[in-house]
Amino acid sequence: MTSPSTPIVEIRNLFKSYLRSSQRVPVLEDITLDVADGEFLALMGPSGSGKSTLLNLIAGIDHPDSGLLRVGGVEVSALSEGELAAWRAAHVGFIFQFYNLIPVLTAFENVELPLLLTPLSRKERHEHVALALRLVSLEDRMDHRPGQLSGGQQQRVAIARALITDPTILVADEPTGDLDRESAEEVLGLMDRLNREFGKTVIMVTHDPRAAEKARVIRHLEKGLLNHVPA
Amino acid sequence: MFLLKLILRNALRHKLRSALTVVGIAVAILAFGLLRTLIGAWYLGVEASAANRLVTRNAISLVFSLPLSYKDRIKQVDGVEKISLGNWFGGIYIDRKNFFPNFAVETVSYLDLYPEFVLSAQEKSAFLRDRRGAVAGAKLAERFGWQVGDQVTLQGTIFPGNWEFVLRGIYRGLRANTDQSQFFFHWDYLNETMKKTAPRRADQVGFYMIGLAHPEQAAQASAAIDGLFKNSLAETLTETEKAFQLSFVSMSGAIITAIRIVSIVVIVIIMVVAANTMAMTARERIAEYATLKTLGFDARHIAGAVFGESLLIALTGGVLGLLLTYPAAAEIGRRLAQFIPVFRVPPETIWLDLAAAAAVGVVAGIFPSWRGATINIAEGLRRIG
Amino acid sequence: MIPLYYSLRNLWTRRLTTALTVVGMALVVFVFAATLMLVEGLQQTLVDTGSPENMVLIRKGSETEVQSGIDRDAAAILASQPEVAIGGDGQPLFARESVVLINLAKRGSDEEANVIIRGIGPASLALRPQVRLVEGRMPRPGAAEIVAGASIARRFRGAALGESVRFGMRDWQVVGVFDAGATGFSSEIWGDVDQLMQAFRRPVYSSVVFRLRDPGAFAGYKERIETDPRLTVVAKREIQFYADQSAAMGTFLRILGTTLTLIFSVGAVIGAMITMYAAVAGRITEIGILRSLGFGRGSILLAFVAESLLLGLLGGLAGLFFASFMQLITISTMNWQTFAELAFGFSLTFGIALKCLAFALVMGLSGGLLPALRAARMNLVEALRAA
Lengths: 231, 385, 387
Hints:
The complex is a heterotrimer of chains A (231), B (385) and C (387). In chain A, α4 packs across α5 and α5 packs parallel to α6. Chain A contains 7 helices and 10 strands. Chain A is α/β, with parallel strands linked by helices. Chain A starts with 8 loop residues before the first strand and ends with a strand. Chain B folds into 2 domains: 173 residues, no CATH class; 175 residues, no CATH class. Chains in contact: A-B, B-C.
């Protein structure tokens, strides 16, 4: 099911290691991976396999030691800290396991957050946010703070926030990891819809096989190495 | 706009903690303001002194007097326009705890030299007519509930005996910094009594007050006066009123320095407390900072949010402390009236207070903003899991 | 019972917060200790200045020797009283003294201060056993010579051995320096009483000092002398006389010090409270686990109280440690009652150390009690759910 067109994510010979109490621990070794535009990819693997690290690298919140990483034609590994921030704001939508909403802001304000970095007017921002919240069926909860929402609702707010800037790729790190079965289904259904209806490229890290089922491609990471398993 | 909203909501997030910090800072700023006011009170005499007034006293020390005959000789000195004289009387009113400065002065010339002591024409003439008359400052009269016409008895320490006076006037200060806690009476009354009881102590003057036509003549006139009496039995020391007052301040220099240091220490203490609070707050929000960074906000936004919160809390505390300073100073001024004649918050205290509060906010914000701004996103996010 | 090392280790884990809180408390304890030490130093100085068996007589109505005057006839009457002790040399231990202030400039600055200059008689030195000549010799009667107290010789221009000071139209040679320990005499200059009275044109003495033959005779002597119609004097024990002179200064320092300490401690208690509240908030799960392991509310309360007491103790010890160095510093300032320069130090006593530690513990406790109560009251189920 690989697409013949230019991949949206191109990874070549990527290496990443961490310093753990003055010892270098390799996390990713010689990763090469292409993700096609409009793909829904699930990265699976046991804890410590490096799947989250790979996701962070793709999302531009961490730097590789060596290798090539190109997303949407931009060589992410070559960007400076400041350029990365601007790039992330424009091209990446991030969905976290623990939602990571700002507790003091309402659902509406949380979703609006990334738009504050764009030149959009107040009115335009409000229209966008309203649309995104309608998409995740939370328009009636927009004045609630995260503390007043259930886990599933919070994750849907986080998805709306990830969508709001119309990013190139959506990355999700264990998006259902902290949710009950029913909420997880809702969230996965939403992601599936985003992929199918809106053609969003989704890269999801999970170790939940039921979550991975929704993906169209599954890749396994084991001890920093990638195994190709077609879905 | 968004930043302001975030700062405000974050500041209100831990209401108890923020309230405690605000109170702590308010208390520190209050203490700082009061200590500054206390230091200012010391310098009151210096501040209130006029540039065209000189004081001549015995060169050995204030304990020694000068002959009355010097008056006419000083008058001849170039630039001397007015001259008055007096003695520190050092009398005790009922109990020595009731301390206030009391002087015997040559009345007419003294009131002429001190236009800042304002007496009504009626009270002034009543005072001048009565040989045993006395005048007290408004604050002093208020302290002891004296009315014009009351009899006031002072027990002499330097000049033995009980001295009875009739209060003929209550003066008000022309300016806010005029000392309204003094008491003075006719030098002639003192001198006549001395002539009878201790003739060797008669015609002795504690100090001469000199009014110059032009303040710029001060150095020249001082030298001329002291030159007149060089190598005599009673050499003189003449200096401007300001220098004279300053010499008293400098004698308590060690205590003033200590108070100054303490006023800085109180700010340092509250800096430590506030820095601790902000560090704690930032540590709890590391994941949020990481999230904001993931969304594309950069170090400046995060530092701005932390600094803003720190400054908001510090300045709220500062303003609260400043507002408390005025009633507190009024209360202290009332209670310590016998030690401190004028306890008035100097206007620059407002700026010093706000500057101190801002400094607390900035210092408390430095470390957490740096932490928040430089946080590694991957690290920061991991903390929640 | 939760072991103490649980509290200790928690403090250690949050090192930065702990350190900042301790520093805040240490500063408060430092100010508290320094004030107490200063008042103590002042009192010791002025109390040590007097000897219990000595009497001082000054003119009725005056408060200090400088204000006082006792004429020669009165001094002669006082010298002939039977209560006056006789010294080893067969002479009465009785001194007529003259005390005035002179302005002297400090070394290395143009600042001037009032220094006490005391005219002494032959018995003066014997009456003050705490005064010891450390350099040179005592002034010869009839010569324009003076000896300076160690604290004056060090700090004032012209007051060291071999130098000279000019006043009363004469130059006065400094022929000796005496050390009177931490007493007011160390801040005085002494010279021959007759020479000084002549120079200052003073016909009367300031005070007389003598030793009581029988210390028990004080009350009777005082009663008789103060009612003697030929005399207008008051008699005080020398100890009382000097203690009275420190009253105003001591009161001022004490009021200032306690007010400041109170204000400061509010800041420190708030600091401790913030720290402890955060400690509780950050350990909700942990508290839940401890509770589910069977530790009671009392144990949780105790563990958190112990933690805040430890904070207070650390702050107290650190503050005291730094305050103890203040003993190396000497403060010299004007005593408002005598208008004269007086040097005194900071004095750390066991009592002050205890007070400071108690104060620090109270600060820690008042900062930690409310948060500890919150920790102890926490609902077990909710605490665990917060995980």
